[in-house]
Design goal:
By secondary structure, the protein is of the alpha+beta class. The chain has two domains: about 140 residues, no CATH class; about 350 residues, DD-peptidase/beta-lactamase superfamily (Beta-lactamase), CATH 3.40.710. Helices cover about 20% and strands about 20% of the residues.
């Protein structure tokens, strides 16, 4: 019997290379699998192939599979060789390997050189000799990001303290993407590390996207921010619920929904019921809310954060634009060049390509893949890379370093808070003491944050886990401090590069 090294084949899409970190390991998980017989198999040599490289980025190049052996002639050694010349047979000295037995096999290459082509292939040796798999290659960028160890250490320490599986950071300065990096694991089951190409649920950061969509319609003359939402002559008219409506409902405006001053549907104004009736359609859900839920306070008189406010804004976008919420938001994604932004699925089977897995801690675990998507589209349903999130932030930041999709007059409306709560404007927070705009999001298995400083700095940090309890907001403040440090710490030496 001929010796074979066999495994299931994993088909993965090859990606283009972005700036690689000089001081960081370049990781490849290579798959060796059985193939049809050829000349080598007739001589008793192993037959194998090297799987495609996936997620080539600052952190890693990843492929996948597991290594098993069969045949009468045992495999003596197997692994991966890297070189700067084609068909390498020995590796560069900066290579390290993990997983020499069965299961996931990883190989790391550190000390990468700018503008250099690297070649990689798998090998296996038995008593008959050594055979090599097909060769893959990639070329590093001419300018490569250099790690900032002090910053990386702070983020990894924060993750360790709160048992966070994976994180993705993106930082811009004066409109240039100067730093992006993944930390930890995107998927524990495959040992896949987080790369900047990984997509995360944004949770309530999605509200900023919804607000931007409303502001774009306002800017284009399609709606008035002070227009009434429900009742005769309003935006939604009598499309939802059963007239006659409550007086507080017919008094409600778009601006009050944006600023969470609807007077209803929040923790202190009747309860946030966004996850109730998960099988209802959008219309059934809004019918039920209008007909059964209280509106105890006149609109504009109290701030009470509610996901329902943004759920209703999603329906306004649909009515005014004539498109579905997802289709209209895609026009925003296209305008900012956010090709890796989309919409969340409810179940693990609906996980998108390059999307991380989510890890609930404690009681959170049962809810991670049981959130009412796609109905929660406008309040929490967007997914994106950290880089793509900053493409949005830098397109609405009011700076002239990158083109904005909102003009100055519209941005002024966007960042104006209500008279009853100065800390929240239209889908974006205002931290006056720090001269910051921000938003954050939280769902089971997800925690997200972005900030825009008045010093030209913007940062986004995305996590695929969170503690199931946050007593006195200790975890939230810790994450806030990590992002604030990125914005405010002048000791970090940001390179003059642009990875957008």
């Amino acid at each position: 019997m001929n010796p074979l090294l066999s495994s299931k084949i994993v088909s993965l899409k090859k990606r283009s290379l972005v700036g690689l970190s000089v001081s960081m390991s370049f990781l490849v998980l290579l798959l060796m699998n059985s193939c049809k017989k050829d000349d080598s198999s007739s001589q008793g040599l192993p037959v194998l192939s090297t799987s495609s490289i996936n997620n080539i980025s600052i952190n890693s190049a990843i492929s996948g599979g597991d290594v098993t052996e069969q045949g009468s002639s045992a495999i003596i050694s197997k692994g991966i060789v890297w070189g700067t010349s084609s068909q390498p047979t020995t590796s560069l000295s900066t290579k390290t390997d993990e997983g020499p037995g069965t299961g996931i096999y990883t190989s790391h290459l550190a000390g990468l050189i700018p503008s250099t082509k690297y070649y990689v292939r798998a090998y296996a040796t038995n008593a008959a000799g050594t055979a090599y798999g097909n060769e893959l290659n990639f070329t590093t960028d001419s300018v490569m990001q250099v790690d900032i160890p002090e910053l990386d250490a702070k983020i990894t320490a924060f993750m360790t303290a709160y048992d966070i599986a994976g994180a993705s950071l993106a930082v811009s300065k004066n409109g240039k993407l100067v730093y992006m990096k993944g930390y930890g694991l995107a998927d524990k089951s495959t040992n896949e590390p987080v790369s900047p190409d990984n997509i995360f649920r944004l949770a309530s950061v999605s509200k900023t996207y919804t607000a931007v969509a409303i502001m774009k319609l306002y800017q284009d003359g399609k709606l008035d921010l002070d227009a009434k939402v429900f009742g005769s002559g309003s935006i939604l008219g009598e499309d939802y619920g059963t007239p006659p409506y409550k007086p507080n409902l017919t008094a409600l405006t778009i601006r009050e929904l944006l600023q969470h001053t609807s007077g209803a549907w929040g923790a202190s104004t009747g309860g946030d019921v966004i996850d109730y009736n998960p099988d209802y359609t959008n219309k059934q859900m809004l019918d039920w809310i209008i007909d059964t839920r209280p509106m105890p306070s006149p609109p504009g008189t109290v701030f009470d954060y509610s996901n329902i406010n943004y759920f209703i804004l999603g329906r306004i976008i649909e009515k005014v634009s004539g498109k579905s919420y997802t289709d209209f938001l895609k026009t925003i994604f296209t305008a900012i060049g956010a090709a890796n932004t989309g919409f969340a699925g409810k179940t693990l089977s609906e996980r998108k390509p390059s999307e991380v897995a989510y890890y609930g801690q404690g009681t959170d675990a049962q809810y991670v893949y049981n959130i009412a998507f796609p109905r929660r589209d406008a309040d929490a349903g967007i997914i994106a890379t950290a880089k793509d999130l900053l493409k949005l932030v830098t397109a609405i930041d009011g700076f002239d370093s990158r083109p904005d999709i909102l003009n100055a007059a519209t941005i002024s409306q966007f960042i104006t808070p209500s008279s009853v709560f100065p800390g929240y404007a239209c889908g974006i927070g205002r931290w006056q003491a720090q001269n910051l705009w921000f938003n954050d999001g939280s769902l089971p298995g997800t925690r997200t944050w972005f900030m825009r400083g008045d010093n030209g700095m913007c940062a986004a940090l995305l996590l695929n886990s969170r503690p199931d309890t946050d007593v006195n907001y200790v975890f939230s403040y810790a994450m806030q401090d990590v992002v604030l440090d990125v914005i405010k710490n002048t000791s970090y030496s940001w390179q003059d590069i642009d990875q957008f």
